[in-house]
Amino acid sequence: MKVFDLCCDAGHLFEGWFASQEEFDAQSQADKIGCPLCGSVLVRRRPSASRLNLGASAQPAAAALPAGSQLQTAFVRAALQVIANTEDVGERFAEEARRIHYKEVPERGIRGVATRAEAQALEDEGVRIMALPFPELETLQ
Q1: Which among 80, 81, 96, 99 could bridge 89 via Cys, Cβ 3.0 to 4.6 Å?
Q2: Residue ranges per structural domain of the chain
Q3: Structure confidence by residue, pLDDT tens digits, 98-115
């Protein structure tokens, strides 16, 4: 498996996993690689550090924080997963969240729009909510 650091024409950094260099080349030429943030297929490889396994057992390195591009990719993937697995209730978010919380309707994953005041009121009532970090991703679906 080859992991390449990629960048779209808008400057968004992300990772791509491919079976081989040839697979990357084929997908790239067929415009099958898209930026997870903006959807652009104008993607190029960025230089990345090589890793050599020489068989010697090295001391385990201290856990390092992921690079900014890796965090961005992880957040985007998580947001896309939320979008794919929830129902968009739009402006009715606060109302539907309450109905689910008070068991007036079956429990299900929802997403939508709420004002700060509505979100605070939900939190005050014990309704657990979370803001979607990249709301513009929904338009890419």
Answers
A1: 96
A2: 2-48, 85-140
A3: 999 999 999 998 989 899
